[in-house]
Amino acid sequence: MTMNGRAKTAVSLAKELSASIATRADAADEAGALPAEDVALLRESGYLGISVPKEFGGYGLSLRDCVAAQLELAQGSASTALVAGMQVHIFGNQREIRTWREAAYVDFCEQAAQGALFNSVASEPAMGSPSRGGLPATTAVSTPDSNGWCINGHKTWITGGKHLTHMLVRVNIENEGGVLLVEQDAPGLEWANAWQKALSLR
What we know:
The protein is α+β, with helices and mostly antiparallel strands.
């Protein structure tokens, strides 16, 4: 199978980005950091929309073509490629299963294509990865005006961390699992850097 024009463009873009992020990769790994410059490149270049459908401003790439682009990006920095890969997975998966409300799906796709950075926020100290089952300890209670949610909890590792613009937070709502959108500037959100000298991706 051959790549279409959009896929070739995305792979070429990934090579370009890779060359730039490679110049910071060693220092970032030593510092245990994700360079803000890398994230800015991902957001400004449109790369974060490679799995977003074309009709919402993305590239609309297949899984195979997304992997090809990601392999190129990872040559520069595996950590930076992982951050991008989380978004690629989220929107590629939603394109197939469409579990979000339609209005939210369209809105999130358009924002992702324009450079918003999303990731799921699920893992917790006691529960570990939600893929093993169980409800999160993080709770969500409807606000008195029923126009929002009060979320209370503690999550552990979050790929992309402070660089994310949108977080899909797994919560416990009256003993049922749910997912709520939290933006980076939400009041009460706190970050603790517990990854110094850790052997890990960011």
